[in-house]
Amino acid sequence: MLLAERLAADEAVFAGWSAIPDPMTIEALAGTAFDTVLLDMQHGGHSEESILRCLAPAIAAGKPGIVRIPVGRFDMASRALDYGAEAVIAPMINSVEDAEAFAASMKYPPMGERSWGVSIVAARDGQSDNLKRLKTANAETLSFAMIETRRAYEALDGILAVEGIDAVFIGPSDLSIAWTNGAAVNPKLPDMSDAIADIVRKARAAGKHVGIYLVNMADAGPLSEMGIKLFGFGAEAKFMSVGADALLGEAKASLG
Ligand code: 3PY
Ligand code: MG
Description:
256 residues, alpha/beta, TIM Barrel, eight-stranded parallel barrel, binds 3-hydroxypyruvic acid
């Protein structure tokens, strides 16, 4: 099932966050119970080359690929879609102009200015009917604008009004830096919970999806009730340390 369909059905979707730019890592991550894999170019180690190579094992495993591009790299948003990503997350979308530039790179005309070139994605998803792809791509690939600064929060109504923006993604670490005027980085900052609730309420009222970087796993339920449906967390180093410590603890406990 497409990521767009799952989110439209209001299902909670969990994305395994990847920072290690290797197809074998993605093969392993796509083999877990995660619904999707999220390749991070902004703060993770992913590059144009690794996005090209790492989307293939995700697609082969039936797990939609999501790519977070570096700040302002809207050319890379189009390329990620050309390589088979079903969604792109753009960090630091702080103004209507940022949102319009991002949306233009994500959507074919007349909604946007995305350029045509689908040989790679077609080989990967087996869809060879170009006209069908042209008619459906704008709805089936999702643009997530990250809201993680005060400027973004203040411009939220305008950002949500941009037609080619399908969703927002909340970055709680950067938002906390903004909320404390640079005094702290605390993705659990209680002071910003009203702002987060406000972002979710406005986005859902505008018919847009909402995602977040999940800090406390147990918050997924309440946040989903609030209207956030895409949850990303990780990355691999975290999965390895939690898994390794649990297994090692079990083995050591058996020593008595
Ligand atoms: C943030 O919390 O600022 C993020 O961008 C999540 O990765
Ligand atoms: Mg951030």
